[in-house]
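User: Here's a chain of 372 residues. Predict its fold as tokens.
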Amino acid sequence: MSSPDVLSFWTTSIKNTISMIKKSNNFTVRSLVLLALLTIILCNDSNAKSSCDNIAELEKLSNQGDVISQNNLASCYYVGEGVSKDITKAIKWYRKAADQGNVYAQRRLGSLYIMGAGVSKDITKAIKWYRKAADQGDAFSQDTLGVQYYSGSGVTKDLTKAVSWYRKAADQGYAAAQNTLGTLYFNGEGVTKDFTQAVLWYRRAADQGHVPSQAILGVLYANGLGVTKDFTKAVSWYRKAADRGHAFAQNSLGDLYIKGKGVAKDFTKAVLWYRKAADQWDAAGQNNLGNLYAKGEGVAKDLAKAVLLYRKAADQGYAAGQNNLGNLYAKGEGVAKDLTKAAKWFRKAADQGSVLAQNNLRTCLKALSERH
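Assistant: Prediction complete.
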């Protein structure tokens, strides 16, 4: 990119990119629910499942006050392993274990209150239990409290406290919190903006295999933010994420193959990566693959396929796809010429601020007016 204000451009673009990369941004309540589901489904300690083979013994020990047995029995009731599924009984035993300080039970109670599973949804009670677990060093709960303070859900919004909780989890190696801390440093939220610190935290998460962080590092290396610009390293990070199915990284890798940056220019490989992204309904990937079909680069020229791909991107609100679809309608390429439809798509892109589409719309409307 040759814009004289490249830093400003990329700062804005990467903020949007990070939002796109983190499809389920952990700042949102929606993702918090997903995380809560994950912790209940995935974070049961390994003994719980095997303990469900001997429910009678588990009941006996639980009634004697054995905290581990109480937590395990709750898990059995929650998943319906060895007993009929019974959320009410699960909550009863989780609460008994939690009241004795069992961190797993405290965390799970927090998750159940977040979801309203077996109890009335109650963010305040969820926070109470997450805080108890967090105060015992539970990284998931610390990260969750960071989410709550960031979003102001159940607590007064407080970015300083959000950063504090994220840092506690991040310092324990919790990848999601490291990723979030990177984003806070990148945006300067709750901390002084610091691209170097952002890179540090993204790298810690990425080195653990955290896919969104790998993709973001690709962006930062491609644009020299917090690091020396290095397309070879950008390719490396994009590829790590792309190989794990990350659509944004797949599309970005396609871009670098088109431009020959960090890799030898190769339209065939660009097609491969754009297609992988497009198959996941990544609008940029669909649009870029459409471009290659329209030009016959890396694939046989096929305007009908270009139209199909542009339409998929356009229907998702992708401005470039809308403008490109408008162009094909205006020229009658791959579709019957239709200036009215062309104007419709140009307008959609123009309304999103696309200068190219705004110019195309003016030309198209002029042509329409001259026909009458």
